[in-house]
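Fold sample X.
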Amino acid sequence: MMVPAALLLLGALAAVVAPRLLARADWPDREPVLALWVWQCVVAAVLLCCALSMTLSAAASWQALHGHLFAPAPHSVVQAYAIGTAAGPWAATTAVALACGGAWTAAMLVREVVRTRTRRRLRRAELLVRAPLLPGEEPGGRLVVLEGERCDAWWLPGTAPRLVITTAALRRLERRQVDALVAHEEGHAQARHDWLLHCSAALAGGFPQVPVFAAFRDEMHRLVELAADDMASRRFGRLTTALALVEVNEDRGVFGPSPTPQAHVPQRVDRLLAPPDRFTAGRRLRLTAAAALVPVVPILVAFVPGLRALG
């Protein structure tokens, strides 16, 4: 059994099949937090397959790494992995290619971090210009009221996270709708959805030809909004949260016939106004357990030969 090849095949299979199954399912709209977890498991499984395949391929090609990796293992385990002097001609090429892919992934993550910090610095500098500190006001307040004619609110993450809301939103929305809007943005901050968005953007930007990473990025943008909607609706009601969404986005043309970047807003409103579906706890528990096992599959594929040899 060629374990590195099996791991690559398993990773490719997960990258192709899992997004299609998730796209056909309707439960992610009902359980966005669970869907976020499943998507992370799928991407983690794909990356883990590549990492394990790279390690085993490198061990088959370079004796130094082979000695460090299999030094404590019995000879039967080494034979079970078919790793020795008769390494295949493609082992070194596979290891180098996967190592380059890993280095490129790290570079894309670093680039995303640098870009994010630059954008945050610019937005914080803009806030200081548009909403300067009053005499005697201490910097670093969590709430910033911004003069503006556009109804809007957003969370600015970072070491000192801040919630920004415009005066137009305070004038237009009722008190509970403002509270629901604030709860929505706090939901993003508490769950650290910005980390998910940055990681998915880095993978999709670094590997634009890999469909699973593009789907991962698009679904993260959609599912984090659904998860934050649910957090707000649990505190202030589904109707109040839906009305707040309508009031904030009504002037942006998202409810018209032409598509916009916020085209998912009408679906979010319809979802909040629809009768809640009954999603049993037992089914959710079984699905959560199955999702938790997704990253374990490549580990089992990698270690089953060794365990079988030890037995």
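Fold sample Y, listed below.
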Amino acid sequence: MAELSSNFLYAAFLLYLVATFFFGGSIKDKRGAEEKKQNKWAKLGIFITIFGFAAQIGYFITRWIAAGHAPVSNLFEFTTFFGMMLVGAFILIYFLYKTPALGLFALPIALLIIAYASMFPTEISPLIPALQSDWLHIHVTTAAAGQSILAISFVTAIIYLIKFVDQTQSSKRTFWLEGIMFTLVCTIGFVIITSSFAAMDYKANFDWVDKHGAEVKQEFNLPALVGPNEGKLIETDRFEPLVDMPALINAKKLNTVLWSFGIGLIMYGLIRLIARKRVAALIKPIVKNVNLNLLDEISYRSVLIGFPIFTLGALIFAMIWAQVAWTRFWGWDPKEVWALVTWLFYAAFLHLRMSKGWQGEKSAWLAVIGFAIIMFNLIFVNLVIAGLHSYA
């Protein structure tokens, strides 16, 4: 059953990839504004996307059967579920607004999220006692659903900014927008480099001394540009680290960041060298026919829908479960704190939108910042900051 589950996820990934190309073909259609006329390429794209979504639901159900519990208990499972809900939210929004350009941006982001998830251990493991509760299904799935709908506001915001920001002159807006493009390229670099070395089954083991003075082992899955504190490489045919890190710094995670940044920088440099223009300027012709007012409306409505769902899942249901499991509603755990930060930010987003009239570009930048907070919570808080909720 676990193997069948993996096959379903792989099929979903491929179908999303194929659907992205069909949505790309729909943009080239010359019959008019694509947000108002659904051409044959867009129809094929959404049809394939639905099949991919069904395959990913198949993955979720079969993995649930194999594990005996909802597959949201580790970072691989939660992140793949987040990607699935993002696609589900896109499908819903697509049928409401018939905007193929959304698929050209939403599906690649979902693909990156699923690819990112695959970098973590995929083994099915039994639940620890603290997680053996029906609230696991209720709290985690609802929180992920809320975040995925909020992520749609980021997708529309990126499209809005790419079309709206003037690329003919350098400014703060072009700088920050290009920074977002560079971050996305680095994310692609992370997926490429980790997938490549995983395919080669690269492993480098170190004996090192942790912050407590104990001698422990650590396995690197990428060549070690930086090594652990007082690290000694066990294999003789592996790359020696250029420098050792202090015990307080997780050398393995820092090494992954350095590789991702380095590959991303090379890829970004090649794109700029070949295209002779900013990445955002390179993409701009793709979104020339989209309606900015429609994008602004979709972004706003995504937050309107996603915010109450996130409130239920990440705060209310979470506090109820915390009371059941730990006999307290709130404990200032890092994940709890960042869930609150996320909630406060989107509450401020809605306040500024409704009472201050922050629409259009201002609203788009807020949606980008909100998604950055969600990603910080997903990646940094889960992996680096140890806590009751984290996967660190």
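Sample Y note: DSSP finds eleven helices and five strands in the chain.
Also: Residues 32-37 have pLDDT under 50 and may be disordered.
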